[in-house]
From TrEMBL:
Full protein name: Isoprenyl transferase
GO BP field: polyprenol biosynthetic process
Binding of Mg(2+), residues: 33, 221
Enzyme Commission number, as recorded: 2.5.1.-
Pfam families for the chain: Prenyltransf
Function: Catalyzes the condensation of isopentenyl diphosphate (IPP) with allylic pyrophosphates generating different type of terpenoids.
Quaternary context: Homodimer.
InterPro entries with a match to the protein in the record: UPP_synth-like, UPP_synth-like_CS, UPP_synth-like_sf
List of catalytic residues: 33, 81
Keywords: Magnesium, Metal-binding, Transferase
UniProt cross-references to HAMAP family, sorted A to Z: ISPT (MF_01139)
Organism classification: Bacteria, Bacillati, Actinomycetota, Actinomycetes, Micrococcales
Cofactor(s) named in the record: Mg(2+)
Native source species: Glutamicibacter arilaitensis
Positions of substrate binding: 34-38, 50, 78-80, 84, 202, 208-210
Amino acid sequence: MQLPNLAYRYYERRLAKSLPADKLPHHIGVMVDGNRRWAKLAGTPTMAGHQAGADKILEFLDWCEDLNIQMVTLYMLSTDNLNREASELRDLLEVIGSTLDRLGETNRVKVQQVGAKDLLPEDLAQKLAALETITANRDGVHVNVAIGYGGRREILDAFKALLCDAAKDGRTLEELASSLSTDDIESALYTKGQPDPDLVIRTSGEQRLSGFLTWQSAYSEFYFCEALWPDFRRVDFLRALRDFADRQRRFGT
């Protein structure tokens, strides 16, 4: 058992050292997918899969900190997830709440919610608001927690905000339409002021976005990994970063 472990650690170290620091992504979006399937394969309750996935999030952020990744957006709860069976949703929200507590206790990350706050239970919304305030001035990885998030809902909310602002300023719809730019829309997104993700990783073998960062990922690179999220290893992450570093980014050209 020791030889395979030693060989694995040696390979992992070599892989990490081979990564060019100037070609690493600054902002990574992660679709933490596969918790339910992991639990089913393990023969454990679904909540055990969600908890294993939550533990992996803390581990993953340690890897990001080690590699000086500046920003991470974690897709933790979509608007579609809010329609799950009541008992599973209750368990999932409990795991999310405890994960937020653990993020606050690390003293190393800055947390920001991206999502529709009005869709969340009041206690979770309050916890998120408090965590944003507590961690606002911290150094370390900036962690966007996409909770109650949907890409279409985000764009809809952005347009609603722009329309409301125009009405307050006394502008007509025609005046808004004639001056509206992509910069205006970006300024009204949940991630306003942030750089778009350079790399989006999805685990569990699925190869679709499922509404994750619909606007922001227009020019992102994508990496799909077969591993279920609780089984996602540091070497899998390093391989994703190596793949990203080897790509020639064209930004639509």
